[in-house]
């Protein structure tokens, strides 16, 4: 069986930046998970004593607080600034962008239509910057029956699929007089998705590596599954099952934006032994 890595996979710019910040911030605490990868978080804890707090209320005598890649709410940021603590901002610039857009457009009277998962920390953070109504949706038909205003601004969670975002925009263009559209989907996400799509169309088994609570990793798995029925989402090499690869000719591998190279290499090494 041949093993082939997707042309684009793994750590994105924002995650690389956040990891570097954490490695240079020994004995700090992150507000929420720095990235959605528990194994990498464990490594930062073991090697740099960077611990993870659930939220700001868990802060005690810490001297340094790291804001996670997904950002935090505007209120939490204000509360953090009121404390006697060194704030280290590891928010991905691609997440900061929709925060700024939502704040500006809502101040100009636009209601916000947000393509994203309402329970995701990135979405919660961006929503907090709006002073007008925010409609968080995963499908355009969730807006059916809602009286939309004369003008809306549309943004997307950075890890969502462009095709679905376009469908939502098209729906709004047919119903709202003024629609301001901002492409806030991360380029790295698009590149990883396209590479996974290309490889999945040729492979007879696909392995997607990443945190199972990671939005972009789940999107990669969904893309792979649509093109290659035998697609599996794993967090580490320990989850690999030898029977998945019996009589297979090409095993494709992709990984989410929060998946470090050392985890990917362990998966490749174990596959090679099979």
Automatic annotation (TrEMBL):
Family: Belongs to the IspH family.
Binding site for [4Fe-4S] cluster: 12, 92, 186
Pathway terms, separated by semicolons: Isoprenoid biosynthesis; dimethylallyl diphosphate biosynthesis; dimethylallyl diphosphate from (2E)-4-hydroxy-3-methylbutenyl diphosphate: step 1/1; Isoprenoid biosynthesis; isopentenyl diphosphate biosynthesis via DXP pathway; isopentenyl diphosphate from 1-deoxy-D-xylulose 5-phosphate: step 6/6
Cofactor: binding comment: Binds 1 [4Fe-4S] cluster per subunit.
Cofactor needs: [4Fe-4S] cluster
Active-site residues from the entry: 122
UniProt signal peptide: none
Catalytically driven reaction(s): isopentenyl diphosphate + 2 oxidized [2Fe-2S]-[ferredoxin] + H2O = (2E)-4-hydroxy-3-methylbut-2-enyl diphosphate + 2 reduced [2Fe-2S]-[ferredoxin] + 2 H(+); dimethylallyl diphosphate + 2 oxidized [2Fe-2S]-[ferredoxin] + H2O = (2E)-4-hydroxy-3-methylbut-2-enyl diphosphate + 2 reduced [2Fe-2S]-[ferredoxin] + 2 H(+)
Leading EC class: oxidoreductase
Top-level taxon of origin: Bacteria
InterPro entries, sorted: LytB/IspH
Annotated (2E)-4-hydroxy-3-methylbut-2-enyl diphosphate binding sites: 36, 70, 120, 158, 214-216, 258
Keyword Iron: yes
Catalytic activity, EC: 1.17.7.4
Binding-site residues, dimethylallyl diphosphate: 36, 70, 120, 214-216, 258
Residue positions binding isopentenyl diphosphate: 36, 70, 120, 214-216, 258
GO annotation (BP), single: terpenoid biosynthetic process
MF terms (GO), sorted A to Z: 4 iron, 4 sulfur cluster binding; 4-hydroxy-3-methylbut-2-enyl diphosphate reductase activity; metal ion binding
Known role: Catalyzes the conversion of 1-hydroxy-2-methyl-2-(E)-butenyl 4-diphosphate (HMBPP) into a mixture of isopentenyl diphosphate (IPP) and dimethylallyl diphosphate (DMAPP). Acts in the terminal step of the DOXP/MEP pathway for isoprenoid precursor biosynthesis.
Protein name: 4-hydroxy-3-methylbut-2-enyl diphosphate reductase
Keywords from the UniProt entry: 4Fe-4S, Iron, Iron-sulfur, Isoprene biosynthesis, Metal-binding, Oxidoreductase
């Amino acid at each position: 069986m041949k093993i082939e890595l997707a042309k684009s996979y793994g750590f994105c710019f924002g995650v690389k930046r956040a990891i570097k910040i954490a490695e240079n911030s020994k004995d700090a605490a992150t507000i929420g998970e720095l990235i959605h990868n528990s194994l990498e978080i464990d490594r930062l804890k073991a090697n740099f004593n960077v611990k993870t707090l659930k939220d700001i209320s868990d802060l005690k005598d810490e001297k340094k607080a790291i804001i996670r890649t997904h950002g935090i709410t505007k209120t939490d940021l204000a509360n953090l600034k009121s404390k006697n603590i060194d704030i280290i901002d590891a928010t991905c610039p691609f997440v900061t962008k929709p925060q700024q857009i939502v704040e500006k457009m809502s101040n100009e009277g636009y209601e916000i239509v947000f393509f994203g998962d309402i329970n995701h920390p990135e979405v919660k953070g961006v929503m907090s910057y709006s002073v007008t109504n925010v409609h968080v949706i995963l499908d355009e038909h969730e807006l059916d029956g809602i009286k939309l205003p004369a003008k809306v601004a549309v943004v997307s969670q950075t890890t969502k699929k462009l095709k679905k975002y376009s469908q939502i925009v098209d729906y709004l263009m047919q119903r709202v007089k003024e629609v301001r559209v901002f492409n806030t989907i991360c380029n790295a996400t698009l590149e990883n998705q396209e590479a996974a799509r290309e490889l999945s169309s040729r492979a007879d088994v696909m392995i997607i590596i990443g945190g199972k609570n990671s939005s972009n990793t789940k999107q990669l798995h969904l893309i792979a599954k649509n093109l290659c029925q035998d697609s599996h989402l794993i967090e580490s090499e320990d989850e690999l099952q030898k029977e998945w690869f019996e009589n297979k000719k090409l095993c494709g591998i992709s990984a989410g934006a929060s998946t470090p190279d050392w985890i990917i290499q362990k998966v490749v090494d174990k596959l090679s032994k099979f």
